[in-house]
Amino acid sequence: MILRGATCLLPRGVGNAEGSTRRDFARWKEEHFWPYFKITPPPFSTDVKLKVSVPKVNPDFTYELGTALVAKNVVLTTAPEPEKRHITLKLPEGMTYQAGDYLSVLPTNPRENVKRAMTRFNLDWNAVLDITEGGLVIPEGDNISPWRVLSKCVELGRLALEGDIKAIAKYAEGAVKTEIMNLLADYEAEVYNKRLSPLDLLEKFPQVNMDLGAFLSILPPIEYRRYSISSSPVLDPKLCTLTYGVISEKHKSGTGWFHGVASTYLSRMQEDFIIEVGTVGSDEFHLPKNPEKTPVIMICAGTGLSPFRGFVQERAILKRNNPDLELAGALLFIGCRYSTADRIHGEELDGWQKEGVVGLRYAFSKESTKSEGCRYVQDRVAHEAEDVKKLLAQEAQIYVCGNNNVGKGARESLTTIYKQMGKSQEDIDDIFDKRLHEDVFD
Question: Which domains does the chain have, with CATH numbers?
Fold first, then answer.
């Protein structure tokens, strides 16, 4: 647009998905948006106004969203490896997906965190809220359970931003107020790196006299968590599975325990429980439309295997339904720690390999002697260069799913292999643009 004569009013704001996009946006507003338009930033205000009372009956309310029914929820790993699970869901009527798509899950906050908030604000377990102004996050009305508000409406565990700290400081006095404001001077070390939430800060400074309405006003609404679907609808369009890791670790602050919101929620779902979900289509992370002509190379680590389980499952079903079908080649590179404890979906994948629908190539970081001396998945890709070259020469579609290290390592190994094939860097960049599909996360 600039080349066509448009005037750029403000520098583009960029959010880092590895950090806090909420913080990035807040800083962009403070540094560019407000100054450019010569507007004084709106002061902190309590958008949520409420009264607390204790009735004889504890009422409830729910969101009106698409609901899936839990059919099965099993553990895939063995102790002491971090827990990974596989959950099977019966989708609501009319909800569809393709292998490679995502399922958004609306979780509730871990009950441990809700109990902490209830305790911090001295809320009776039978209390209800009369919410006269709920802002953009909280539903208005009377007889609303604070447990439900704290569970389902707001993000209790999200990182405290600079603005949140200033808001909390307004409810403090004297030396406590000064100590809280001093956190801003060393925000990275004292708040960001320790992943402190507003609730963590209120517990750290019990002298702060912040009321529940003000606390709810600084919290963002609870968000859907997006998971790669680990099944194919070709097996059963009414069923959908997720393969996920359960995050439960010591808090980076050194105090207490950190529980991942969505993974903890999913791990506690039992058969016939209801989960609020929605499918989200992937733009390009799908199997080729002509599986008999186009080879595929899949590279992953950990639960990055999820979409590829769906891919291979679909190839297996296509082959079983049409035994004469000659599928193009498929290589699946998988990184995990051990050959048994965390080799998730191992027996199933072994069976599909025997059926000839995929070739498995593992990298065991703790047992590299069992994976051709390769510790990491990108090492195994490089080790299998000759097999990879055969598929690349046939214009294979390449898929990568895993953390940033997996994404970076896969690109480096593939670049080296392409150069061995005589490709220039310009050629490789063009190939990556057309045939490399990445689902990379932090």
Answer: 1-42 (no CATH), 49-55+110-218 (1.20.990.10), 67-104+223-280 (2.40.30.10), 296-441 (3.40.50.80)
